[in-house]
Design goal:
Layout lengths: L2 H13 L3 H13 L6 H8 L12 H5 L13 H13 L5 H15 L2 H12 L8 H11 L4 H11 L2 H17 L13 E4 L3 H5 L5 E6 L3 E8 L2 E6 L10 H8 L5 E10 L9 H4 L6 E11 L2 E2 L5 H11 L8 E4 L2 H13 L4 E5 L10 E8 L3 E12 L8 E9 L6 E7 L5 H12 L2 E5 L2 E4 L4 E6 L1 E4 L7 E4 L2 E5 L11 H9 L10
Amino acid sequence: MRLAQLVSTAAAVAATPARRRKVALLSSLLAQLDEGEIRLAVGFLSGRPRQGRIGVAWATLDRIVVEAATEPSLELVDVDRVFSALAVSAGPGSRAARRALLTGLFARATAEEGSFLRNVLRGELRQGALEGVLAQAIAAAWSVDEDLVRRAAMLGGDLAEVAHAAAGGGAEALRAFRLELFRPVQPMLASTAPSLAEGMDGFTLAVLEWKLDGARIQVHKEGETVRIFSRNLRDVTGTSAAVIEAVRGLAADRLVLDGEVLALRDDGRPEPFQESMKRGAAQRPFFFDVLLIGDLDLLDAPLSERRAALARAVPAALRVRSETFEGLAGAEAFLAEALARGHEGVMVKDPAAPYEAGRRGAAWRKVKPVHTLDLVVLAAEWGSGRRRGLLSNLHLGARADDGDGFVMLGKTFKGLSDELLVEQTRELLARETSRTGQVVRVRPELIVEVAFDGVQASPRYPGGVALRFARVRRYRDDKTPAEADTLASVRLLHLGGAGAAAEVS
């Protein structure tokens, strides 16, 4: 297939707000691909070429100035061949070799193709074809169940591979994807409930867990081999010897565990997140779920069964505190104890629910008395006074409901320490895209966890709502922009009365 056809489809997807139309455009494109092109096309559309992070610097791309081709000639396999050569180029002379490869590629590309390729190489593709839409398109292109596609993607970790399997083997090939040791799966996620009563609503029985303010980890063990994966599935095994030692000491020979890692003070209270994550901090793991034990895959087992297996495999000292409740009376005391011990709140979970990898549904609900959102930094303003020369006031955005772009909710300069201001300025300038007066606009890559007192209507911002008294709690290096909270979730807090107040001008 010609690259031009893929690029024009991507542009049409970006231009339409209708999810159904996005799916139709993508599924039509996918159905026309040859077998050898499927992985390539899905990788390009999702901004994840099969070579992974190719590592072409912005400055290198900016120095490639060639006259664009007037007629399209590039095939998908041509681009893949150049990307493969770029990925293995290293050592003496590699800079010149990379520049020659890029110059040759862009000389054959039309203006539209060149823009698309630059965005893929920079990791900032913004055409609206997020993985959720692509999963639907894969299901439609090869007439398979969408849930099978999503499940295979979570277990396989590669949507391009899933698309290839769906095209070649249909539903049977997708069912063949299994949980495998040392291949991490997307973590199950929680929705937000504004109160404990609403968090437990609809549950006859509810499992409550202390909500720890640590870093999410997934730990795989086979014999003496232990590997640790972050929330976004990066291998972070070398960052915590304490976790490795603790898991090696467990009796089970084969395990996949889900949990948090954090540091505790001498009195047992948690250190602030920033302190817990510092190199050299005395971190401890606390596990709340088990996905595999021995040869038993527990993904589809109910939480009650997984909790029982976890209790057999992991001692209480390494498990997150949890209890099962029927009704609010005991649950309120459990929440109060969690807060008194310095934790964020509680998780409320359905004991009958399976582990839904990568899904954010109603089976898990987080209840935190202090409302927080994970938002994207869209821009920042230069500070004044003692903050002169530093980027201070952050422009914050929620993810658009259709997954295409971000919607600004407000600004904040609160909660930023002097140390964080310096680091923040460096990171933002590295992502600068343009300036207007005091405002520096940046690529939407950095996620901040923002605490706030409520949500109120606001005609000032395009989403119609704004945060009241927002302040930065921390940067979320473990999250990607695709995992930022949506505008719909912010509006839900507003409609639920979480801090609703008079409109701001």
